[in-house]
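Field log, afternoon session.

UNIT: design team B
ACTIVITY: writing a sequence onto a fixed backbone
BACKBONE:
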């Protein structure tokens, strides 16, 4: 074994010049070497496409791995290899195959990205044309309706404005969506107006209630000048008018898995009868503290 080891080491000295042609001022141009490989000192990474550079490097890696593969196969054909040398060469052959496949897959990904990037300019043109057309209409000096201007002040954004304007005719919202629409009638009741400076909220709501969580907090945490059953009845009316957003709040916001959607109608009917369903107490802070005589404090 000791006599074979020097021959083994000598046999595995590869021809490094076939793996990469080191730059030479006499045998290569400023960019390419004699064998076609790129001089890394001549690459301008600031002005070159990164995908193109990666693809070129992957192609060079494949050539180097294939040379490594051929080299190991030729060495494996030698008749005087030991068992350890044979296993080492076999493992290296498998490793070269895996590396070649990895480079080929990476090149396929780069080609796919290049084809997809060719479609982006057309998409950007359509989106920019749409933004330009809408900006012209917005800057034409036409005043928006007062209702839309009021809805714009809400923190729910532009989507809430559109949904609010769709429900100004008083029709109920049955589609499953996040926002609804309800004007609090307790804020305009005589009992609230006569409550004095300690009333909650301190001033009537200027804007309609659109978010279900805000509806629950408004009626269950505020308006303590009204009896608990009156607040439940008003909340039931609001949720009955906004059944779709209420379903959205239960199933998506609160992640409740409802096998029977009739449970939603039962909750609304219980509220409209003047009682708070126990199922809501674990889903909302204000519901858990209800009934209360002061905002945020449970009786």
């Amino acid at each position: 074994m000791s006599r074979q080891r020097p021959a083994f080491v000598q046999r595995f000295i590869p021809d490094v010049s076939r793996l990469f042609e080191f730059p030479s001022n006499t045998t290569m141009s400023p960019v390419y070497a004699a064998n076609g490989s790129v001089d890394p000192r001549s690459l301008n990474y600031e002005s070159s496409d990164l995908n193109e550079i990666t693809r070129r490097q992957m192609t060079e890696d494949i050539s180097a791995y294939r040379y490594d593969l051929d080299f190991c196969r030729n060495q494996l054909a030698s008749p005087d290899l030991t068992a350890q040398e044979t296993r080492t060469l076999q493992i290296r052959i498998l490793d070269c195959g895996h590396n070649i496949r990895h480079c080929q897959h990476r090149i396929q990904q780069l080609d796919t990205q290049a084809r997809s990037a060719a479609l982006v300019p057309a998409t950007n043109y359509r989106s920019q044309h749409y933004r330009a057309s809408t900006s012209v209409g917005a800057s034409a000096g036409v005043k928006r309706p007062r209702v839309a201007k009021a809805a714009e002040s809400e923190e729910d954004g532009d989507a809430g404005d559109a949904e609010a304007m769709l429900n100004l005719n008083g029709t109920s919202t049955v589609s499953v969506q996040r926002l609804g629409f309800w004007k609090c009638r307790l804020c305009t009741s005589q009992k609230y107006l006569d409550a004095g400076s300690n009333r909650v909220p301190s001033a009537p709501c200027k804007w309609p209630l659109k978010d279900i969580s805000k509806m629950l907090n408004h009626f269950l945490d505020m308006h303590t000048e009204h009896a608990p059953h009156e607040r439940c009845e008003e909340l039931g009316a609001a949720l009955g008018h906004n059944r779709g957003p209420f379903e959205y709040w239960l199933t998506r916001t609160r992640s409740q898995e409802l096998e029977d959607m009739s449970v939603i109608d039962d909750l609304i009917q219980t509220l409209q009868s003047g009682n708070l369903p126990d199922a809501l107490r674990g889903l909302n802070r204000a519901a858990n503290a209800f009934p209360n005589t002061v905002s945020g404090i449970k009786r």
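LOG NOTE: The radius of gyration is 37 Å.
NEXT ACTIVITY: expression trials, pending approval
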